[in-house]
Amino acid sequence: MLEYQAKKDLLSNKIILVTGAGDGIGRVAALTFAAHGATVILLGKTVKKLEKVYDEIVAQGSPNPAIVPLDLSGATEQHYLDMADTIAEQFGQLDGLLHNASHLGALGPFEHIDLTSLEKIMKVNVTAAAIMTKALLPVMRKAKNASIIFTSSGVGRKGRAYWGPYAFSKFATEGMMQVLADECENTSVRVNSINPGATRTEMRAKAYPAENPQALKTPEDIMPTYVFLMGDDSLNTNGEALNAQ
Ligand SMILES: NC(=O)c1ccc[n+]([C@@H]2O[C@H](COP(=O)([O-])OP(=O)(O)OC[C@H]3O[C@@H](n4cnc5c(N)ncnc54)[C@H](OP(=O)(O)O)[C@@H]3O)[C@@H](O)[C@H]2O)c1
Question: Domain count of the chain?
Answer without folding.
Answer: 1
